[in-house]
Write a structure and sequence with these properties.
2 domains; mainly alpha; 12 helices; about 75% helix
């Protein structure tokens, strides 16, 4: 009896978590399929599917260009973050030198600062480098919150790998770069996919830096573009367009997570048990 009650309570908790997590996205979808006249009617399934909001998003603004901007910035952040973090994590995880743990703790501490704390300093740096209103400036600024995470996770993973693999490679005359690319990286694919996907999501959803460091709509990313969808007044905001745009930018993330879900689980549990 107790086991049955425990099982029921567990599934009830899971169902509640799934409902709380999924229902806002579901309601955004059905709201995006309503005409403006019916948008504030409470319906949990639309009688008529109205696709005009999706057409309006692309017709009334350069939303396609904003999506492309977000895609280019997010992919560049992932590539640079993984390239730098793989090499840095190998040094921090395998090479013994004074201050190694201090550097690792400092890298982790950087990620604890909220974005608004470093916003003014980063703005001055971006302006000094001539990267204001430039997607390269967004890529540089996003590395502040993606690099610490990726370096920490990959360093922890590399420390859990057996050293005999490197010793055998060194005996065969392999250098550090060969060890990283030929020996370690084939074993690191699950954790690379996990950290890369999380870095992509963080860059895709980032708003504060994108709002501060871009000026024209041609350089804006989707979070800023959605925030700037306006009407004549607060009561005349095109909520249907906003919901449609939100659905459009959320679907790629959902598809990526579903496609890489096995890799993500493997990456999150990698190094947890040493064999």
């Amino acid at each position: 009896m107790k086991k049955a009650l425990g099982t029921c309570a567990f599934y009830l908790l899971v169902a509640t978590i799934v409902f709380v997590s999924v229902f806002p996205f579901y309601y955004a979808i059905i709201s995006s399929l309503k005409p403006s006249s019916q948008l504030f009617n409470v319906d949990y399934f639309p009688e008529l599917w109205h696709w005009g909001n999706y057409v309006s998003v692309f017709r009334e603004q350069r939303f396609g260009a904003n999506i492309l901007n977000s895609l280019l910035v997010s992919l560049s952040v992932v590539v640079v973050s993984l390239l730098l973090s793989v090499t840095a994590s190998y040094a921090l995880g395998r090479i013994r030198f004074r201050g190694r743990n201090t550097i690792l703790v400092t890298i982790l501490a950087v990620s604890m600062f909220p974005q608004v704390v470093v916003l003014s300093g980063m703005f001055e740096l971006i302006r000094l480098l001539g990267l204001y209103n430039n997607m390269l400036g967004l890529t540089l600024s996003y590395l502040i919150f993606t690099l610490p995470f990726t370096v920490w996770v990959l360093t922890t993973f590399i420390r859990g790998l057996p050293k005999e693999l490197e010793e055998a490679a060194i005996m065969d005359g392999a250098g550090p770069w060969t060890i990283i690319t030929r020996v370690l990286m084939p074993l690191m694919w699950p954790v690379l996919v996990t950290t890369g996907l999380l870095a992509f999501v963080a860059a895709w959803n980032e708003f504060l830096f994108a709002l501060t460091f871009t000026l024209t709509n041609e350089q804006r990313t989707v979070p800023v573009a959605i925030a700037l969808i306006t009407g004549g007044s607060a009561h005349e905001l095109p909520w249907g367009n906003i919901m449609a745009a939100s659905v459009i930018v959320t679907i790629p993330i959902v598809l990526l997570v579903l496609f890489f879900q096995r890799r993500i689980v493997s990456g999150l549990t990698a190094g947890a048990v040493k064999g």
